[in-house]
Amino acid sequence: MAIDVNKIPKNIYQILILIKCCKAKLFCAVLHVVIAILNHLLLKDIIKRLQEKKPIDPIHDIHPPHGPLLGYKAIHIKSDWILVFKIEEPFLILVMLGTHSQAYEK
């Protein structure tokens, strides 16, 4: 998995470099934790932007889902990780978070 070091906060990147120098297995474990934290922060930012009606980067591709989710919207948090939601003023209703296959399984 390639990671863009420009997207990792500098202090976390420095810690990762130190850990990598010490133990490769520990580095992999910490890297997974850091990726999970970054994914959580990304999800949190997108939800906040939806709540505040702020623009969201088009890379996240907000689109209407198909099948039983008609009437809702889906947004890509990552390529195969989507958030299904509905806006009923003044509420943002979060319906599900998962992969495409989880969202569209019958």
Mean pLDDT: 79
Distance between the termini: 31 Å
Radius of gyration: 17 Å
The structural class is: alpha+beta
Query: Taking strands numbered 1, 2, ... along the chain, how are they ordered across the largest sheet?
Result: 1-2-3
The count of domains is 2
SS field, number of helical segments: 3
Report on the biggest sheet. 3 strands, antiparallel
Pick out the low-confidence regions: none
Shape: elongated
What is the H-and-E element order? HHEEEH
| Topology, number of strands | 3
What is the oligomer described by this structure? single chain
Q: What helical percentage do the residues reach?
A: 40-55%
Strand content: 15-25%
Q: Describe it for me?
A:
This protein has 106 residues and is of the alpha+beta class. The chain folds into two domains: 1-55, no CATH class; 56-106, RelE-like (YaeB-like fold, 2-Layer Sandwich), CATH 3.30.2310. Helix content is 43%, strand content 21%. The chain has three helices and three strands, in the order ααβββα. The protein has helices at residues 10-22, 24-51, 100-104, and strands at 73-78, 81-88, 91-98. Strands 1-2-3 form a three-stranded antiparallel sheet. Helix 1 (10-22) packs antiparallel against helix 2. It is elongated and about 45 Å long. The chain starts with 9 loop residues before the first helix and ends with a helix. The mean pLDDT is 79.
